Here is the input.
Amino acid sequence: MSSEIAAGPVDQPQSAVERLHIAGLHAPADAILSVRDMNVRFNTENGVVHAVRGVDFDLMPGKTLGIVGESGSGKSVTSLAIMGLLPSTAEVTGSVRLKGKELLGLSDKAMCEYRGNELAMVFQDPLSSLTPVYTVGNQIIEALTIHNPTMSKQAKEARAVELLAMVGIPSPKERLRAFPHEFSGGMRQRVMIAIAIANNPRVLIADEPTTALDVTIQAQVLEVLHTAQEETGAAVVMITHDLGVVAGMADDIMVMYAGRPVETGAVDDIYYNPRMPYTMGLLGAVPRVDVAEKSSLVPIEGMPPNLIHTPTGCSFAPRCPLAADACLEGEPALAPVPGPAAHRAACIKSGSLGGDVDVHDVFAAPPVPVSRFDAIPREERSTVLQLKDVRKHFPLTKGALLKRRIGTVKAVDGLSFDIREGECFSIVGESGSGKTTTLLEIMEFHKDQDGEVVIGGISNKQAADGKTRSAMRRELQMVFQDPTGALDPRFTVYEVLAEPLQNAGMNKVDTKKRIMELMKLVGLQPDHVNRFPNQFSGGQRQRIGIARALAVNPKLVVLDEPVSALDVSVQAGVINLLDKLRAELGLSYLLVAHDLSVVRHISNRVAVMYLGKIVEIGEVDRVFDNPRHPYTRALLSAIPVPDPQLERTRERIILRGDLPSPLGTPKGCNFATRCPVFAALPAAKQEKCLTLEPPLEQVAPSPAARTLAADPLPALDQRFACFFPDGELDEDMLVVHESADHHAP
Amino acid sequence: MLRYLAKRGITYVFMIFLTTSAGYFLAVSSLKPALLEQERIPRPTPEQVANSMRLKGLDPDLSPWERYVEWLTAILTRWDWGRSPNGAFINAEFGDRVWISTRLFLASIILTLVIGVALGVYSAARQYKFQDRVITSYSYLAYIVPAPIAYFLVQLGAININETVGERIFFVTGISTPGMEPGWAQFIDMLAHYAVPTVAITLVGWGSYQIAQRQYLLDNVNADFVRTARAKGLTRNQAISRHALRVSFIPVAQSIAFTIPAIFAGGFFAEKIFAWPGVGSWSIDAISLQDVNAATATLAYGSVIFALGAILADFATTLVDPRVRVQ
Here is the structure.
């Protein structure tokens, strides 16, 4: 026990009371929300988890503070502690002052006066955050009733309509009577925002408000949050793990690690001049969608610490490449870094780190792997997977006993593409666009399928017997999205990896040898083979999943959202591994991902899907740098980039509405209902979009290139399906934020 | 809604027809009332037995199919469910017994539901506290103890009270004292007869609702939408009672359908022990007395009760859950 007492905060000699007193005196008078020395402890069966350790910040009226960190860093707990919404088992100490009034220690009842009134919150998962049995109007009006008991019924209804209109819900008056399940995820998050801003809060806390949403919907919701902030003048605390999301929104950033703020400062200082290795690592670990980079991502090795044990040194030291002995002696305080701005970092080496230090030097990023296939032109490599006009239509039926067909869902509608040796081909699109169905159709491999699937020269049309099918399984393997769900918790790693090998008829000795080989290949310690999956971290489990897929030496690996369940720092390591394996083993990948930055980083070619059809396909840099289809353009512009200056001036296409139901797809172009080009076209040209289906057409080389080149140019690897790619965009759907309302202090 | 009910009604009528017909074939081919007749003294001749059976519409010489057609025609044309081997008319006997069963169970079913759900909410709000532990332990005990034993215990308790007071307050068996004058005295007599069986059945029955309601409410107490409600400015208890309660009642409402027929099926213990000659005890008697028509009629009644319970559950679910659309 004595060691625990000795391990107290070495760098903070004053008592908590003194610190609070001083902090109170030093808090800026005009701060709307001041948090001082906030600590949150949870009593668990394993011991006391110290989830938040000494958070301090001041929030100025109308400003936005971004709290960035990975899962378990304490960012959500901080926000719930401010709101007083933590379970009663949590012990919260320190001080939270809203306009000078202390909130910590208030009873649940006393807190209710502030919650939903001056202090409001938007939660992460819009699907479960609204009560399913009450209408949306009912739930908005409830928020008004609690704090304005005297308000008349008509006035409340009028205000609810006004709020729904403000967050961009069409025909708000009718939608008041709708239930949450009649709204899509994005629409529900708008309703959540409407509830939060109902009473014009002074502080709005948004906890990962867009994490559960598609990129196009994320762009819409961020836009709504922006409007909400402008309308109410509220100060916003934006909590996220995505450095791109806050780059354009936040004025200040607080980076959290292991329950502590490790770096705070103005947004530009944090992004362009990080002084804490963890922040640098985070920035380097995120691939960029707007840059055709040819460098590896920065992996941060290891795992965040267990917060049951009080750290005796810098909590990031075990993962930090710069860690020295001095780092292990006491946790470094959050101290000002040299420079004029209010920029603080908790690192004893922050003085030597700065804007000119390259993160790739600090964290030993592996060299860019080169595949032996890179030198061979694509046309000369053999084809490992080919899809010819694959369709999957689901009949939609009605009735219990006698089923009537009332429509068809065209989940996949005429898909053709091929994957060559050594290349990574990606499919991107919103949820519901048919990406996963495409994968399932490939895995199905049945002769009665509509369309032809050829895997390693074996066609599904000749796959009548089990022998052909198992031959095909050796050509193609799959890695799943959720590494925890994909591994049997009762199998040791050895058993997980041995299963495919035994299926392939390998003897015991060879199996053992191969498993050791595989463990080394994916960067796991070979002596861990007898452990169970729950003894590994998420990133390590995904490595096991990759090892299992590689066990039988497949030519093609299908990756279904392989990194979306992982934290940013871990994700980088897995992406680097995939890159390395592709080069070393000459693998081909078929990748499905919603994160376009990841896609750009590891793919060679990409297909953009919309409602079961490919709307644009081609070489990844061509498609991302020079998108031709309006949908691709919108998709790309919707992705936030971790670059504050660029974010502030970027033009953004905000698509209206959600992905339409694939039920009643129109005769002409599927995208016409949401298309920004279509909206600006004259009626005569609109007619063409509505009646004719645009075919996938080759992009012609630009006229300038044609005149310059003496020989006839080879056809560009980019095709798209749109009649008017050069049409003007509808102005209403374009958003550019004036840098004036987000100037860096 | 009406159209939906009509549709469900037709489906259930079809199902009741199927189960009842199947039941009839089973009864007619396995129950032989003529055998019992032969035990009478003086022993009747086979011709006499066959003749008496024929008169009651229970001709043992006809094939099962012929008897089925005859039986079904009588029901469809005259609503005549036939006669027992002792000559009693099923229709008359049935009416009396249904009324007795309904009187015995209706009050208990309602009390079971209300008390079970209320205690479930109460104990969920006090999870792991003393009250919760006591109530939930009791519910599990009620689950384990076989119903007849619990009924006997309640009877013993009532007898004990009677003895302690020295006066007969409760009747532990029977429906009413014969020959009472209508009026206040008769009403008191009725209560005295009702109290013991109603209390016994309720005490045994509420446990399952309490456990289910407590469980479903606890599942929802920490739901995201309760947190949203609190973030709006409701206290924790307000948020739970306004938002979590209704959501947690949805699965409970669905389970009601399948407990009502269960209570009916288990009812013959209560009817036997408390000597209320209802449908439950009749169904057992019908089998031992080789009574084809009575056995089939009680089966049909069971199916009807089951269908009513299912429709009631659909109704309750649509009432509390807007996501369920009625088509």
In short: Chain A touches chain B through 32 residues (CB under 8 Å). Residues 265-368 of chain A form one domain. Confidence is low (pLDDT under 50) at residues 1-14, 739-745 of chain A. The CA atoms of residues 277 and 672 of chain A lie 47 Å apart.
